[in-house]
Amino acid sequence: MHRIRATLRSALNAAIREGLLRDNPARHVELPSPRRPHAQVWTDQRVEHAAAGQRWRDSGYVFTTGDGAPLHPDYLTRRFRRLVADSGPPPVRLHDLRHGAASLTHATGADLKTVQDLLGHAAARIPGQRGRKPHPDRAAENRKTPTDQAAESLAP
Questions:
Q1: Is residue 33 classed as helix, strand or coil in its secondary structure?
Q2: Angle between helical axes of 75-87 and 94-107 (0-180°, round to 10)
Q3: Where do Basic and acidic residues bias regions lie (predicted)?
Q4: What is the DSSP letter of 18?
């Protein structure tokens, strides 16, 4: 578009100088202003998309294969098993990490509603809650009377 505008301006101005035209008939014509592309940061993901070219499909998922297709649901579980086996800790399931995160969150003082929201549960109930022992750091806190707890919170 820029080149068209420059060529038209040059030709009409030459015609006016040579006396072929009295004024520029295109002065009332509105051409769209040239748009320059916005600079883009080339992240690793954007480079992968460009490399995939026509094969890339935007699935809307965060974690995808190299061509944008969603990962198979069992991929992360299988990959996690392989990483655990290669690194040598005792066998642990990927789902066990979810339970561990919930327990640690609750142990730091978060209420059950916060843990529920974190896990996406509909009810603020911990499975197997009956018979569950409190976390050792919280057991002493649970034995304190409300008066002791209030006094500690007011102490400097």
A1: coil
A2: 80
A3: 134-146
A4: T
- Which runs of E-coded beta strand occur in 2-117? none
Which residue do the tokens 């569950």 mark? 132
Whether residues 127 and 87 share a domain: the answer is: yes
Q: Kindly state whether residues 107 and 120 are assigned to the same domain.
A: yes
Q: Tell me how far CA of residue 58 lies from CA of 37, 38, 54, in angstroms.
A: 21, 21, 11
Closest of 112, 110, 140 to residue 148, by C-alpha: 140
Quick one: which of 7, 52, 47 has its CA closest to 31? Answer: 7
Which residue, of 52, 71, 90, is where some domain finishes? 71
The confidence score (pLDDT) of residue 130 equals 47
Mark the ranges of the chain whose per-residue pLDDT is less than 70: 1-2, 31, 34, 123-156
Can you give the pLDDT at residue 126? 52
